Amino acid sequence: MPFERHEYKSLMDLLAVASLRAMDDAGLGDRPVDAVYVGNMASGLFNHQVSVASALVDRLSLMPATAERIENGPASGGSAIKNGFLAVAAGFADVVLVAGGEKMRGVSGPRSTDIVSAMAQPDVEYIYGVTLPALAGMFARLYMDKFRITPEHLAMVTIKNHNNGALNPYAHIQMIVTLEGILTHPQAKFNNPVVADPLRLYDCCPVSDGAAAVILTTEEIARQLKKPLVKIAGIGQATDTHALQERSDPTDLKAVSCAAERAFAMAGLTPKDVDVAELHDAFTILEIAESEHCGFFEKGEGARALAAGETQITGSLPINPSGGLKARGHPVGATGVAQVVELVWQLRGEAGKRQVKDPEVGFAVNFGGFGNNVVATVVRREG
Amino acid sequence: MDMELEAYLRPPEYPMPPYPAKVITLATGAKMVVRQAEREEVPELLEGVRPTLSVERDYYDIVGARLYAELLGWYRYRVRDEFCLVGQIDGFLVGIVNSRLYSPKLGISYHTLAIERGLRIGAHLFAAKMEHHIEFLGQDEVLITAESPIGFRRWMIEYGLEKRDGQHELGGATPYALTRELYFKAKDRLVAGERPVPPDVLEKATRSLKVASEEEILEKILGVRERPV
Q1: Cα atoms found within 13 Å of the Cα of residue A58, Cβ hemisphere only
Q2: Percent of chain A with pLDDT over 90
């Protein structure tokens, strides 16, 4: 489903439509779905509904499929994909529907921020008023000081991802912005007010409603479905301290590095093999930081690569051709699944105007909490 | 027209200084000219408002319908001391705000309609309207109400408006007030724009008020561009 403000659709509507489209795309026909995993962070708070996986099975008449809701904060989608992958790999299920969704716009902005802040450490962060933008702001200040990243670099992430989002019919924001409009013009402060210094409005992803879904299956069944094969070649997951302040170096996203290493190890690949990446740019600084921590660039070189155009769609390592969380949007539970959907489209050559040239290997990072539970996925085109 | 009767039906006019045009650079880099509309431009303005009458989303239909009536009333000399500011990008109408003077010191804010969304155009034009009330018309207070949650957030919350007793002319919810003190407190943060407008930019805006087609207006408001079915 396109990510946007879905005023007249419920969370279940969004999940159902995305799921049906995935099943249609896969060409499942009468083949039953054995298991359903739904990535969702906070439907109980946003929508006063829990057990959404059970609800989805009923909505789609997939009984008696097994069903679970998977919650890992903003990495709920990535974790749902991981659980689906494990189900197939373990022989527990042959055909798995993995959906991710969130409907966040039914509550006010402050309420939405508060709900998302529930992932912060309750005793030493949330209680003192920490929100995710606040954590990102503090992280950004440290990271920018350490690696000499400028506000212009952050704006470049915004501009690149907005340009990409304008090419993506599923993106929440399809609006091209300019450096003048959001940063350099004396009037830019009115368009781009500070949210959590040094992060401004255009450094932060929008609050979105939306859903995404994929079908995972065995190679044998996949070949029968006659779709271009895209394989999950590797999945990695890692954790770090809950509170940002308890990390030995708050700028060191250890969970990102570890998750990426594990994913690459499983896939038998390295960062150099990646042709296209979807990183978790809930805040612009995170795209730069993750591009380094995943091993694509040396520490301190991510901003240079961005400025040199290496991460553009036409660059040597396109990052966030979908528009990323910044422009495509971030319905929290949907994001991790949407990242994989984008990679599948890219690897199949179905990404339309934002198509990267002939990619074979894709990579996604889904950043849970503030980097305390991260899922990385490597996908590869087969045949 | 029976001019003798018309003289009874037309409200007296309070001499209002004109609003000096300004230009605002938006996030897209586009330059929006904010200027006062002439009464003679109302027919074009109504063409820009008309498509909103069928859009329920974000209360566009109510705002559009009421704004249509207010503009028509102003055009036909049936509303007292009303003024209208417009936002234009490359000559195209992107937003309308209107208000009237209840008394020399008290203003009544009417409506704010943004045709182009996502660029804070409504917020910028509302701020321009308040700028006119307070700084150029010399008023002390402006009564404001909101029909949509977006309006409530942008005005009542962002400006920290004060509640007032009684009713706003538009009826409905509790009226709020922007005082001179509140305006100047918010000005640095919320009132954008540069003067003077470069002559060529201003000439483009004043030469003709261009209105997009109904289809384009609906697309801008509803964001239907290239959406998958």
Answers
A1: 6
A2: 97
Which strand (E) or helix (H) includes residue B31?
A: strand B31-36
Ranges of chain A with pLDDT below 70: none
Contact call for residues B51 and B68 (beta carbons, < 8 A): no
Distance (Å) from the alpha carbon of B45 to chain A's nearest alpha carbon: 25
The whole-model pTM stands at: 0.94
Q: Where are the domains of chain B?
A: 19-219
Percent over 90 (pLDDT), chain B: 81
Cross-chain Cβ contact A191/B25 below 8 Å: yes
Instruction: Please count the other Cβ atoms lying within 10 Å of the Cβ belonging to residue A45.
Output: 17
Phi, psi angles (nearest 5°) of residue B24: -120, 130
Share of chain B above pLDDT 70, in %: 97
Question: Nearest-CA residue of chain A relative to B29?
Answer: A181
Distance from CA of A192 to the nearest CA of B (A): 8
**Cβ atoms of residues A52 and A69 within 8 Å:** yes
Please tell me which residue of chain A has the smallest CA distance to B188. A190
Residue A383 DSSP code: -
Report yes or no: B120 at the A interface, CB cutoff 8 Å. yes
Inform me whether the C-beta atom of residue B6 falls under 8 Å from chain A C-beta atoms.
no
Q: Which fold has domain B19-219?
A: Aminopeptidase (3.40.630)
Is pLDDT of B105 > 90?
Answer: yes
Please, what is the average pLDDT of chain A? Answer: 97
Q: How far is CA B129 from the centre of its chain?
A: 6
pLDDT attached to residue B223: 76
For residue A124, the tally of other CB atoms under 10 A from its CB is 14
Taking only the tens place, the pLDDT of each residue in B148-189 is 888 998 999 999 999 999 888 887 788 999 999 999 999 999
Alpha carbons A314 and A318: distance in angstroms, whole number: 7
As given in the structure block, the two tokens for residue A48 are 């006063």
φ, ψ of residue B64 in degrees (nearest 5) = -65, -45
DSSP-derived letter for residue B50 is G
Say whether pLDDT at B229 is over 60: no
Q: Which of B29, B120, B190 comes nearest A180 by C-beta?
A: B29
CA–CA min distance B227, chain A (Å): 5
Which chain B residues are within 8 Å of A169, Cβ to Cβ? 226-228
| B10 vs A: CB within 8 A | no
pLDDT in tens, A7-24: 899 999 999 999 999 999
Q: Measured between CB atoms, which of A4, A178, A187 is closest to B28?
A: A178
Which element (helix H / strand E) includes A205?
none
Residue A186 and residue B194: Cβ atoms within 8 Å? yes
Q: How far apart are CA A135 and CA A139, in angstroms?
A: 6
* B153 touching chain A per CB within 8 A: yes
Is residue B228 within 8 angstroms of chain A, CB to CB?
A: yes
On whether the CB atoms of residues A96 and A217 are closer than 8 A, the answer is: yes
Q: Are B125 and B85 in contact (CB under 8 A)?
A: yes
Q: What is the pLDDT of residue A88?
A: 98
